[in-house]
TrEMBL record:
SUPFAM superfamilies: ATPase domain of HSP90 chaperone/DNA topoisomerase II/histidine kinase, HSP90 C-terminal domain, Ribosomal protein S5 domain 2-like. Belongs to the heat shock protein 90 family. It comes from the Bacteria. PROSITE patterns: HSP90. PANTHER family: HEAT SHOCK PROTEIN 90 FAMILY MEMBER (PTHR11528). CDD domains: HATPase_Hsp90-like. The keyword Nucleotide-binding applies. Pfam families: HATPase_c_3, HSP90. This is Chaperone protein HtpG.
Length: 607
């Protein structure tokens, strides 16, 4: 029997492992099962090149739980180890400057990164064990099986033993603080999280827990639409079917495979980030993929696998690694290319999906300039009837000079609530204008961004002004009222609308237009919308709306009101017309709304 001390430059290695890695203590299963997979894959490689000439046989990896003995055992039938190899790979913990290591990582909690950086995968077993045994027999002919034992101190024992089969068994004697890992459901949950798609069968309690050949490791040409749909169900059993997917398959200048799915998302969606899982050679790493996947695609679902990203990544690593930046850029390009292809080859289907995918496209155009350049070809705007979709250039062509203002800017008219803004939409349509629907939660920001990115484009909400002024603020229609009548009418409205933030003006509009039209300043409304979403315009949050009340002097109702002999009734009729206009903009509430209802009932009861 050989006895000795594990050769590290400090005797503090085990306390360090337990202390620094404790926050990630369930990672020990991933590390040990991954080692078993590596040993199995090495044996298959040796067999393929003719070095191993024996019978490979069953290479399933088994994880066993013995509650009575309080042990977890991980067994493989891979390459195994000789006594010399155990001494080399287990006893000589290969990192230099251990004191520097201790000082550098004191107080750090990113334990997974420490494991990967210093090759401490096997030693993660001591996070949960009071004692660890290794039983191993090498694939090499005429070698003896060995047993290694350590109790978490630098002292170990290494001796010959009897083991019939090639491979390695690691037996962990679980310590009192970690007895939660003696629960069968806990172990199964951890294995399903970390080992769900490992390339070698993993068995726990006689049941295989992994899919060794998930869809993303296959070539796109080998998969049908049903295969992609079934894999999505495997990942998300309770989700609605995806809209479509993108299969990533790159081997230069970096390795990247994976499948990204576009889920159904509407304007009233619940934000569900962290639905993309990162793998490294089919080993689960993390579902925090913020730096790998562009931010605007964080709502996608699926899997990304790249051996170019270390198994144990830290956030600081992801932020600085050049491969990660290349992968991020590649994913952006692949998504843009896929959307462009869908738009060109089946525009009708693309438009049917726009309610869901528009959110991604708009957010991408706001945050990624390269994506915005490509997306301008397939970004579409639906009209308020959902009957026609326009790209920017198509909208420009459809509206022609009619919606180009005196500054040469294309004015895009939009509605955020077509039902509530219907009267304004109809007034704009009567002028021949095209009104599009922009009603998602990102549209306020999107509009602001596109006005800076698109050349000579301006957005006006359809209720931002009277229809005559929406393109150019130069309406000078002639009023049928005399100067005296106009003065009287303006005086009555002024008496009934004392609020300083409401500006009353008379204009001679079409007799078919509404008698009173309330509009809200486009600039002020945008600033208040941004403030409500916690944007940089918070100073506008408490400011009153800028409201313009346009009295249509050409509406026939005013001749009747002016001819009314009862001054009190005149005032009530004027106030009701004003309140109706405010109500159309959802600006009449509380006591004022109650008064309007009571007044309306009273007026209807009079001759």
């Amino acid at each position: 029997m050989q006895k000795g001390a594990i050769r590290v430059q400090t005797e503090n290695i085990f306390p360090i492992i337990k202390k620094f890695l404790y926050s990630d203590h369930d990672i020990f299963l991933r590390e040990l099962v991954s080692n078993a997979v590596d040993a199995t894959q090495k044996l298959k490689t040796l067999a393929s090149v003719g070095e191993f000439k024996g019978d490979i046989g069953n290479t399933d990896i088994t994880v066993s739980l013995d509650k009575e003995k309080k042990t977890i055992t991980i067994s493989d039938r891979g390459v195994g180890m000789t006594a010399e190899e155990v001494d080399k790979y287990i006893n000589q913990v290969a990192f230099s400057g251990a004191e520097e290591f201790v000082n550098k990582y004191k107080g750090q909690t990113d334990g997974a990164n420490i494991i990967g950086h210093f090759g401490l995968g096997f030693y993660s077993s001591f996070m949960v064990s009071s004692q660890v045994e290794i039983y191993s027999k090498s694939w090499r002919p005429d070698t003896k099986a060995v047993r290694w034992e350590c109790d978490g101190s630098p002292e170990y024992e290494l001796e010959e033993t009897v083991k019939e089969e090639r491979g390695t068994d690691i037996v962990m004697h679980i310590n009192e603080e970690s007895e939660e890992f003696l629960d069968e459901n806990r172990i199964r949950t951890i294995l399903e999280k970390f080992c769900r798609f490992l390339p070698v069968p993993i068995r726990f309690q006689d049941t295989q827990i992994n899919n060794t050949s998930p869809a993303w490791v296959k070539k796109p040409s080998e998969l049908t639409a049903e295969d992609y749909q079934n894999f999505y169900k495997e990942l998300y059993p309770f989700a609605e079917p995806p809209l479509f997917w993108i299969h990533l398959n790159v081997d230069y200048p970096f390795n990247l495979t994976g499948i990204l799915y576009f889920p159904k998302i509407t304007k009233s969606y619940e934000i569900q980030k962290d639905k993309i899982s990162l793998y490294s050679n089919q080993v689960y790493v993390t579902d925090e993929v913020k730096n790998i996947v562009p931010e605007f695609l964080m709502l996608l679902h699926g899997v990304i696998d790249s051996p170019d990203i270390p198994l144990n990544v830290s956030r600081s690593y992801l932020q600085g690694d050049p491969n990660v930046k290349k992968i991020n850029a590649h994913i952006t390009k692949k998504v843009a290319d896929k959307l462009d292809e869908m738009f060109r080859t089946d525009r009708k289907s693309f438009e049917e999906k726009w309610e869901h995918i528009g959110l991604f496209v708009k957010y991408g155009m706001m945050t990624e300039d390269k994506f915005a350049d490509k997306a301008s070809k397939f970004h579409v705007m639906a009209d308020v009837d959902n009957s026609t979709f326009y790209t920017l250039e198509e909208y420009r062509t459809a509206t022609g000079a009619l919606q180009t203002n005196t500054e040469g800017k294309l004015v895009i008219l939009y509605a955020t609530n077509p039902v509530q803004q219907d009267s304004y939409i109809q007034a704009a349509k009567a002028k021949g204008y095209k009104v599009v629907k922009l009603d998602t939660m990102v549209d306020a920001g999107f509009i602001n961004q596109m006005e800076t990115k698109w050349e000579n484009v301006q957005f006006n909400r359809v209720d931002a002004d009277i229809a005559d002024n929406l393109i150019n603020n130069e309406a000078k229609a002639i009023s049928v009222l005399s100067e005296e009548q106009e003065g009287k009418l303006k005086e009555m409205f002024g008496q009934q609308i004392p609020q300083p933030n409401i500006k009353v003006e008379l204009k001679g509009l079409s007799a078919q237009d509404q008698p009173v039209i309330v509009t809200r300043s486009e600039f002020m409304r945008r600033m208040k919308d941004m403030a409500a979403m916690g944007g940089s315009a918070s100073m506008f949050a408490g400011m009153p709306d800028e409201i313009t009340m346009t009295v249509n002097a050409n509406h026939p109702i005013y001749l009747n009101i002016l001819g009314e002999g009862n001054a009190e009734k005149q005032q009530k009729l004027v106030r009701n017309l004003a309140d109706l206009a405010l109500l159309s903009q959802n600006l009449l509430q509380g006591a004022e709304l109650t008064a309007f209802v009571n007044r309306s009932v009273e007026l209807m009861g009079k001759e």
